[in-house]
Amino acid sequence: MSLYAKSTLFVMLGLLASCASPPPQQGKPLPAGYLYKGSFLNIHSPRQKGWYLSSASHAGMQFTRHGDKKGERFTAQVQTFPLPRFKHTRDMVSFLKNGFEKDTRSARFTIIKSDFKLSDVRKYPCVSVSAVIQDNQATGSHAHHKKLILQSYSLYCRHPVQKLAGFAITYSHRGKSLYPGLKQQARAFMAGVQVPR
């Protein structure tokens, strides 16, 4: 589970509808770009091979894939959260940045860099976020190094129909070092998550 999923700030809403078509058999890799249709969002799985659906609920979905190196893991997430109204759209940037900094202010995580900015990639308000965080206490069966780097790209948007709801699309890599090309893969995953027309 990514850092964003653990956030107390982003309490999830039950807005994602059930899949219109049955998901692939549990434990099997997903077909590239598999479509999950919903009334709140339509979500395509990542378009590379080797991804699994690791969790799904009315609040969100998470896909995972192991990398070629020990301890390396990719995660792609879509989650919903309550989003208050703001006087100015730029206030959404401050809201998200403050929550991010609050969640990472601990002995476990060290923020190496982060960038929050308004995005015009969609016709409704969105904030683009990129971050590199050092996990000083990496745990789990695949965490062979005490310190691992979490590199992520996210897009936080206000839902254009459900005005008090937001959704976050996050694509991340955890490993011993940064992963080149992650930004391009993140953009492709983000493009596959859309509000139904």
Question: What do these coordinates show?
Answer:
With 197 residues, the chain is mainly β. Helix content is 13%, strand content 37%. The strands form two sheets. The chain has a seven-stranded antiparallel sheet with strand order 3-4-5-9-8-7-6, with helices on both faces. A hairpin with a 6-residue loop joins β4 (60-66) and β5. The protein starts with 34 loop residues before the first strand and ends with a strand. The model is unreliable at 1-22 (pLDDT under 50).
Write down the overall mean pLDDT.
Answer: 84
Radius of gyration: 16 Å
Topology, number of strands = 10
One letter per element, helices H and strands E, the order comes to EEEEEHEEEEHE
- Strand line-up of the largest beta sheet: 3-4-5-9-8-7-6
What ranges have pLDDT less than 50 throughout 5 or more consecutive residues? 1-22
Structural class: mainly beta
Q: Largest sheet, described in full?
A: 7 strands, antiparallel
> In percent terms, what proportion of residues is strand?
35-45%
Q: What distance lies between the first and last C-alpha atoms, to the nearest angstrom?
A: 30 Å
State the helical fraction.
10-25%
Question: Count of helices?
Answer: 2
What coarse outline follows from CA principal-axis ratios? globular
